[in-house]
Design a protein that fits this description.
Oligomer: single chain
Helix content: 55-70%
Shape: globular
Structural class: mainly alpha
Number of strands: 0
Number of helices: 11
Radius of gyration: 30 Å
Order of helices and strands: HHHHHHHHHHH
Length: 283
């Protein structure tokens, strides 16, 4: 049961956030983060959800199948008195989302170190390797190790608490509240680290700060920033495109109505005369 819950949370996290967190250092190193900062959406949202790993959803489905089999065998052997009801299943999925938020917050905080270093993939993948600890029951640990991986790096809470909701609902309320509180704390610390990292980020070409929330540069750059120039060119091209499309639509409407120089549209055929005589084609 615990292995299935841990694998399910890990695969969902991998589907949405793992690739994007590991690629943050490349965005900073290559200067591609400049373009993301100019988009009219939250930069962290764009950085975190740029790519999705569809294959991880298949692995998550197998993890759910493993959990279903484990629950069935536990019920058959008498380890649990009854199968989980709908409320317990709903609570399980909610706590899985809370656990994913904890993993995402901590890994994104580690990925933000790339603003200070050249590369941070090793640190991010090092945290990902700690996922194996989440597969172990929290009762197997004692002392400082359990305290560290419960409160400092809440690996033991992420998978143990959702699994406990399915098999031991009577004792899971306090652990669920602890997991929810740790997720809020981890996300707040991660957001603080992200904002502190952005304050250190400068444009990869002109060296000035262009991200939202930064004060105006103290000196005027010696050359125009290619990010700002590209953005203004893009806006100008969009406006010119809309202008020409509107102009062409207007002219096509005029030709269709046959009101240009008395011709009947593009065909050049005159309208029949009103006196009953047969008209001739005029080109």
């Amino acid at each position: 049961m615990l292995i299935g819950a841990s694998s399910f949370i890990q695969q969902l996290y991998q589907a949405f956030f793992l690739i994007n967190c590991t690629n943050l250092s490349e965005l900073v190193r290559t200067g591609k983060l400049d373009f993301l900062l100019l988009l009219p959406v939250n930069t962290r949202f764009v950085v975190s959800l740029r790519q999705v790993d569809l294959g991880a959803f298949v692995n998550a489905t197998f993890a759910l199948a493993t959990m279903a089999y484990a629950l069935h065998m536990a019920h058959v052997t008498g380890e649990i008195s009854a199968l989980p009801n709908l409320l317990q299943i709903f609570g399980f999925f909610v706590l899985c989302i809370v656990g994913i938020v904890i993993h995402y917050s901590l890994m994104f905080l580690l990925a933000s170190i790339s603003f200070w270093t050249v590369r941070a993939q090793g640190i991010v993948w090092g945290y990902y390797n700690l996922f194996n600890i989440a597969r172990m029951p929290d009762e197997a640990f004692r002392g400082a190790f359990k305290a560290i991986f419960t409160f400092a790096i809440p690996m033991l809470l992420v998978s143990n608490v959702p699994a406990r909701v399915l098999v031991k609902p009577a004792t899971s309320l306090k652990w669920s509240l602890l997991l929810l509180g740790m997720s809020v704390l981890c996300f707040a610390v991660s957001e603080w680290g992200w904002r502190a990292s952005l304050r250190r980020y400068t444009c990869s070409v002109c060296g000035e700060m262009h991200s939202v929330g930064h004060p105006a540069p103290a000196r005027k750059p010696t050359r125009p920033c290619f990010v700002i120039v590209a953005w203004e060119r893009k806006r100008l091209s969009v406006l010119l495109g809309k202008f020409f499309v509107t102009l062409l639509r207007g002219w096509s409407g005029i030709f269709k109505r046959g009101s240009l120089l008395g011709f009947g549209g593009f065909s050049g055929i005159r309208a029949p005369p009103t006196d009953g005589n047969v008209g001739t084609a005029g080109f």
